[in-house]
């Protein structure tokens, strides 16, 4: 049986319509799920850097959400002054978006981390358990070898002793610069000191091996075969600890602790 041209075109159009409705429906339907997954991933990284969860703890989404809600308090600050920022919707805040908009960002001073713009307001986190401040979490980013590394640095409430570091996005080579994700390398950081006695950012990823925390408090093992990534991590951590980063915010915690 031969179908008319009109029938064939109509049939093809109907198939296209059904398929496109299916694709559009899935995209819309999955958006919430994607956003929930993204939120869960940020929560995991924040809890990991806080030292409240292991990388591979295998907790359910509900358990992660409960641990996060009971121990992590996000807050917005003005980057230049370190003072609390008013008008920021914490649930909607997106640092990368804020950085691109000239209304909500400013040109970064020259730096080794290839950071071009900085947000006026930035979201940081307090680790609070049983009403006690247990630590401070700062978002950090900067250039490695292949591109930007994005992560978090956690400090003890003295704002000087490091509690942890983690990167949640980077393009460094697995086995080389990608070793920044290695739990053994990350375990080098807690207990080391971010600032020297004069208050200058002092922590660095050295070439070769660092000594124990009490003998070599400002140095972390270098990543072998990845000197450029190692230098990138030193640069970006020092940038964010410095006057152009979170220095003004950390100052008051350091003053209280001394
Ligand atoms: C395929 C390839 C991937 C590399 N990936 C990295 C990397 O992720 N991070 C890095 O610092 N160096 C990387 N390197 C090495 C750098 O080009 C450079 O040689 C190295 O940083 C020097 O470090 P070293 O002094 O520890 O050997 C890579 C090299 C090659 C050929």
Brief summary of the model shown:
The chain has 258 residues and is α+β, with helices and mostly antiparallel strands. The chain has one domain. It has six helices and nine strands.
| Number of continuous helical runs | 6
Q: Based on helices, strands and strand pairing, what is the structural class?
A: alpha+beta
Radius of gyration using CA atoms only: 23 Å
Number of domains: 1
Report the order of strands and helices: HHEHEEEEEEHEEHH
- In helices, the fraction of residues equals 25-40%
Poorly predicted runs: none
Task: Tell me about this structure.
The chain has 258 residues and is of the alpha+beta class. The chain has one domain (47-52, 61-257). Helix content is 36%, strand content 21%. It has 6 helices and 9 strands. The protein has helices spanning 5-49, 61-71, 95-100, 183-186, 227-241, 247-257; strands spanning 72-78, 105-107, 117-119, 121-129, 132-143, 148-155, 162-169, 204-205, 219-220. It has a 5-stranded antiparallel sheet. Strands 2-3 form a two-stranded antiparallel sheet. Strand 4 and strand 5 (132-143) form a beta hairpin. Helix 1 (5-49) packs across helix 2. The radius of gyration is 23 Å and the shape is elongated. The chain binds flavin mononucleotide. Residues 145, 172-173, 176-177, 224-229 line the site of flavin mononucleotide (FMN).
Q: How do the helices and strands line up, and which of them pair or pack?
A:
Layout: H1 5-49, H2 61-71, E1 72-78, H3 95-100, E2 105-107, E3 117-119, E4 121-129, E5 132-143, E6 148-155, E7 162-169, H4 183-186, E8 204-205, E9 219-220, H5 227-241, H6 247-257
Helix pairs in contact: 1-2
């Amino acid at each position: 049986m031969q179908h008319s041209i009109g029938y064939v075109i109509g049939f093809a159009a109907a198939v296209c319509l059904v398929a496109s409705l299916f694709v559009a429906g899935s995209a819309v339907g999955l958006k919430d799920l994607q956003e929930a997954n993204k939120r869960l991933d940020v929560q995991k990284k924040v809890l990991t850097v806080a030292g409240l969860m292991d990388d591979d703890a295998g907790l359910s989404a509900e358990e992660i959400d409960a641990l996060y809600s009971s121990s992590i308090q996000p807050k917005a600050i003005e980057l230049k002054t370190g003072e609390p920022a008013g008008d920021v919707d914490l649930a909607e805040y997106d640092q990368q978006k804020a950085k691109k908009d000239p209304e909500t960002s400013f040109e970064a001073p020259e730096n080794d981390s290839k950071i071009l713009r900085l947000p006026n307001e930035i979201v940081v986190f307090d680790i609070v358990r049983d009403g006690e401040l247990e630590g401070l979490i700062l978002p950090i980013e900067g250039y490695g070898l292949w591109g930007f590394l994005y992560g978090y640095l956690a400090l003890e409430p003295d704002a000087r002793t490091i509690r942890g570091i983690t990167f949640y996005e980077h393009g460094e080579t697995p086995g080389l610069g990608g070793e920044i994700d290695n739990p053994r390398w990350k375990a080098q950081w807690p207990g080391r000191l971010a600032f020297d006695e004069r208050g200058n950012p002092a922590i660095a990823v050295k070439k070769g091996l660092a000594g124990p925390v009490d003998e070599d408090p400002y140095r972390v093992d270098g990543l072998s075969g990845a000197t450029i990534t190692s230098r990138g991590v030193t640069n970006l951590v020092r940038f964010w600890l410095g006057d152009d980063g979170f220095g003004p915010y950390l100052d008051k915690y350091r003053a209280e602790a001394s």
